[in-house]
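User: Please run a holo structure prediction.
Assistant: Happy to. Please share the sequence and the ligand.
User: Here you go; the ligand is protoporphyrin IX containing FE.
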Amino acid sequence: MCLLPGRNSRITKPKFYQVYLFEIFSLSEQKDETLKLFYFFHAAVPGLPLLGNLHQLKEKKPHQTFTKWAEIYGPIYTIKTGASSAVVLNSTQVAKEAMIAKFSSISTRKLSKALSILTHEKTMVATSDYGDFHKMVKRFVMTSMLGTSGQKQFRDTRNMMIDNMLGTFHTLVNDDPNAPLNFREVFKNELFRLSLIQALGEDVSSVYVEEFEKVISKEEIYHATVVDMMMCAIEVDWRDFFPYLSWIPNRSFETRLLTTEGRRTAVMRALINQQKKRIARGEARISYLDFLLEENTLTDEQLLMLVWEAVIEAADTTLVTTEWAMYEIAKHPEKQDRLYQEIQEVCGNDIVTEDHLSRLPYLNAVFHETLRRHSPVPLVPPRFVHENTNLAGYEIPAGTEMIINLYGCNMNKNDWEEPEEWKPERFLDGRFETADMYKTMAFGAGRRACAGSMQAMNISCTAIARFVQEFAWRLKEGDEDKADTIQLTTNRLYPLHVYLTPRARK
Ligand code: HEM
């Protein structure tokens, strides 16, 4: 599969068109001449017969490889992964066209075997195809948790979470002012507390899991529902690339996936049953689970998957973003000073609250620049073109898999000056609105855009501001260039370690 420039091609054309011999060879039996022609001229990344580009994607960071290829082949090109092909999009303009203008032709998801198993075949908001189920569950999650009124209900919980973090920072600094502290450990614990309260109505400290015949701790709950799932989501099954070999078992992959999935499901079932007992005692609370049970329209499996989705989505990307922001702030003292000055001018002696956020443009720029430079979700969960369409002037046939490389869009030299640099100032030159959540592509765009962007901003911005208001931040020696990532989302490979110095209160 490849791309043929149509008459109205608007984007800069790739530097050269290649004849992808293997594809043409494999099409030689095709009777359809137009299709043969379609396959003739295109921007395709050269690969090997049979494998295509698979051997070039061995490292589990395809977004970085896709971005390098975009410099050679242009913002839109095809790759071959075994027997399948995919179009990869690497510029904001083309990605927006796919996600907004051409949404009606590109609204279904194409999941890997790993994601199909972990998400129970699209039984979630983020992985379901656009349709009645998706519309219903997106409405549920927005109304009860993530929309404006949902967010109001959990504001005290967010404040408690940030107060707790600051309290822990003070304790750690008092205990040993010369020891660097592990930022992630503190933030992770409090964010997980918030995600449990929102999703289940309780900050669960342990739960009895029938299948394990024992009580498991909060740390074990976190691993079973968040960490292990994030690691497993990037597991690769070679049968994804050679569907005609699907009949051959891949036992090690299946055992790993099914065991992790089974553990997650057992833990979630136990957590939900514990809360159902609470509700049966007449102790209803404000939570996503309470709301969904009240709606009474879902099967038990759908309910479990949706509540798990709320836990994992709340517990991961906001941590990733805030940890990167604090790394950059600690690394750039002059930008930290500018942020501190802004907070002083706007808030004076008052503690920063969510009400101040719209009046703190530099803080807003810090948040969006972090999302741009360290796109927490580097690749949009893959889309599938379900009817012929035209994108950036290229005809794209139905059946094409589409990979939207948000990291590539945010690092594109044509859209961003010095994209490697972390420069919040770039958002203050008058071209961007403070309230615009889509200054970068980090939250996706269009009807499938992130449902949790408001929550992410509320937590991350308030936390960053309060952290800087309360302490001066400095990186642990030698950590300046530790910027490697791991997992499905761009978690820092090395957890952030920092020295904090309490600021004198005026
Ligand atoms: C900085 C933090 C976050 C980032 C960068 C982020 C990014 C994304 C991206 C890129 C998508 C896919 C959009 C698409 O397919 O076009 C997405 C979808 C989604 N996100 Fe987030 N997200 C963040 C935080 C959250 C939080 C905190 C929640 C919930 C607690 C959440 C819930 C969702 C849901 C439910 C969807 C699916 C929306 C749909 O398919 O209609 N996200 N997010």
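The pocket of protoporphyrin IX containing FE is lined by residues 99, 125-126, 138, 141, 146, 310, 313-314, 317-318, 321, 371, 376-377, 380-381, 406, 442-444, 448-452, 455-456 (CB under 6 Å).
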